[in-house]
Specification:
The structure holds two protein chains of two kinds.
Chain A (H helix, E strand, L loop, with lengths): L3 E10 L2 E11 L4 E5 L6 H9 L6 E6 L8 E4 L4 H4 L5 H6 L3 H4 L7 H13 L15 H15 L3 E5 L7 H16 L4 E5 L3 H7 L2 E4 L5 E4 H6 L1 H14 L1
Parallel strand pairs in A: 3-7, 3-8, 5-6, 6-7
Antiparallel strand pairs in A: 1-2, 1-4, 8-9
Chain B lengths: L10 H26 L3 H30 L5 H15 L2 H19 L3 H25 L6 H10 L9 H20 L1 H9 L1 H6 L4 H23 L4 H15 L3 H26 L3 H21 L8
Helix pairs in contact in B: 1-7, 1-10, 1-11, 1-12, 2-3, 2-4, 2-5, 2-10, 2-11, 4-5, 4-10, 7-10, 11-12, 11-13, 12-13
Classes of the chains: A alpha/beta, B mainly alpha.
Chain lengths: 237, 307
């Protein structure tokens, strides 16, 4: 069974439907990129999967031993976080919140896990540093380490490279690819960067007026992709 | 002037100091979260609600006395009259639930619909202030209405005139706030830093927001005695902002904010006794001074990472 299966999903805000009839499934080890124009509902889809928002119709099911609280989420940065006084250690450790459930404090196991994930993201030297004093790329690594504390199975990433310079963007992509390939973590990522999506992903979900879901190889051949690629290419040139 | 310090041996001054330390501690702990969550304005709105509730309690007082005088001394009637007397003596028992209910309502309307929440808050806050002032004028407790209003808005001497029941009530409530804060420290951090992420890991975010709002309501009702309803926000916001000038971790900010708040409260009370100034505004003035000192420290590079 798939880790995540979405059937006939409708989503939107306060009864206003922005997307309907959505079907797709994510299996363990997949790398799915969600692409589409601004305002097509990519972030709303991710929030609906996470249960932050109620679907207007259809269903979202978790399988393959995945519990809804075992998803690692990397949100877009909020205004609050930009001047939040917290150390890297405090933030990464807060990813273990789901593991301790109703217990008030973190135990040795959670601290070990946090340290392990900080090593993976190569940010151990920043442990005592303040989050807001780090560079954009370092901040993303912190949030990724936090997400890894919440999951070993499925990562949901909302534009993880937005605002990063090209070199750091490449490092971030390689880091995520490594987690997917060597760590066997399923990745679902919202991306603006269609060329990177086509390079790293195994599957593509394109939402908008039309919807496409399938392996990358099929997407490239579709008429939808050709139009979208031409549009995006036009914008960047 | 220094002779005034002899008052320190008086029981009512000692009560005032104990209650002030506890209230300052509670308000500073939650202050960090409120400032970071951009909830500071809720504290301000609720303090006006508490003022309105107090005016209503003032009107209810004579009504309750009327009812009590109709009751006998014996049996069930006697017990009932005892209960009513308790409510007459402690209007906190009326103000507290009203403020908590308003806190819950404000949080409910404030979610997702940001602009509507802002105006709802403004309406409740100025509305209760106006109605409260009118009630105080229509049903004056004493011949000097403006002095009564001044007391409830700026605290003036109410911290020095606490009854022993009020002292105990304050002690119990403050301890409860502190225990809740310690037990939920990690949850509060998670919810403050990133609601969406906390929600995705299975934390019941709305429950914790509710808990925070209720605790804030308790703190506001407590702090009303110390600094009066108009100055409560200062007690919540200043220590947190002061600590954030210099400290860079959530734990550091929380601890520093608590220390700053307690120090300023004690210093403020002592200064107000020595110079015969109003307690509330003296405490807030000391808070402002502390904030400026920390700004200078921050500017001088204290707490900054050594590159």
């Amino acid at each position: 069974m798939a880790q995540l299966s979405v059937e006939d999903l409708s989503l939107g805000y306060e009864g206003h439907v922005i997307l309907s009839g959505l079907h797709f499934a994510v299996n363990a080890g997949d790398y799915l990129c969600i692409v589409g124009e601004n305002g097509s509902g990519k972030s709303t889809l991710m929030k609906t999967i996470l249960g932050l928002q109620k679907p207007l119709g259809g269903s979202i099911a978790f399988g393959d031993g995945l519990k809804p609280s075992e998803i690692g989420y990397l949100p877009q940065q909020t205004q609050v976080q930009k001047d939040f006084p917290a150390t890297v250690w405090e933030i990464v450790l807060s990813g273990c919140q789901g593991r301790i459930g109703k217990k008030p404090f973190y135990g040795a196991a959670e601290k070990r896990l946090a340290l392990e994930n900080m090593k993976k993201m190569e940010i151990t030297q920043f442990a005592k540093r303040c989050y807001r004093e780090l560079s954009g790329g370092q901040q993303q690594r912190v949030l990724l380490a936090r997400a890894l504390c919440a999951t070993q199975k499925l990562l949901l990433l909302d534009e993880p490279v937005s605002g990063l310079d090209p070199k750091v963007t490449l490092e971030m992509y390689q880091l995520i690819e490594g987690l997917n390939r060597d760590g066997h973590v399923t990745v679902v990522m919202i991306s603006h960067d269609i060329s990177a999506a086509l390079h790293y992903a195994t599957h593509i979900l394109h939402i908008g007026h039309e919807t496409f879901f399938g392996p990358k190889e099929e997407y490239v051949k579709s008429s939808m992709a050709k139009r979208f690629l031409a549009d995006e290419g036009g914008k960047t040139k | 002037m220094i002779g005034n310090l002899r008052m320190l041996s008086a029981a009512f001054v000692q009560y005032a100091l104990i209650v002030a330390v506890l209230i300052a501690l509670c308000s500073s702990l939650l202050g960090v979260t409120l400032v970071l969550k951009r909830f500071a304005f809720i504290g301000d709105g609720l303090s006006h609600v508490a003022f309105g509730a107090m005016a209503v309690a003032g009107v209810l007082g004579p009504v309750l006395k009327e009812i009590k005088s109709g009751l006998g001394e014996a049996g069930l009637e006697g017990q009932l009259s005892g209960v009513i007397q308790f409510f007459i003596d402690n209007d906190m028992m009326f103000i507290l639930p009203v403020t908590i209910v308003c806190a819950i309502l404000l949080l409910r309307t404030g979610q997702n619909t940001r602009i509507k929440g802002d105006s709802a808050l403004a309406m409740i806050s100025v509305g209760t202030l106006a109605v409260g002032y009118m009630l105080l004028n229509l049903f004056p407790k004493s011949s000097n209405v403006s002095s009564d209003v001044c007391t409830s808005l700026f605290g003036s001497t109410s911290i020095l005139t606490l009854s022993i029941t009020e002292v105990w009530l304050s002690v119990v409530l403050s301890l409860a706030v502190m225990v809740i804060f310690l037990l939920f420290y990690n949850k509060i951090f998670a919810v403050t830093f990133d609601e969406d992420f906390a929600h995705s890991t299975g934390t019941r975010v709305d429950r914790y927001n509710l808990l925070i709002a209720m605790v804030v309501a308790v703190i506001i009702v407590l702090a009303m005695n110390l600094v009066g309803s108009l100055l409560i926000s200062a007690l919540i916001i200043f220590p947190a902002m002061t600590a954030m000038r210099v400290f860079r971790s959530f734990k550091g900010v929380t601890i520093c904010s608590a220390v700053v708040s307690v120090t300023c409260a004690v210093l403020g009370i002592l200064l107000s006794i020595v110079f015969s100034t109003p307690v509330g505004s003296t405490i807030v003035s000391v808070d402002i001074a502390a904030f400026l000192i920390f700004c200078i420290l921050s500017w001088a590079g204290v707490g900054k990472r050594k590159a």
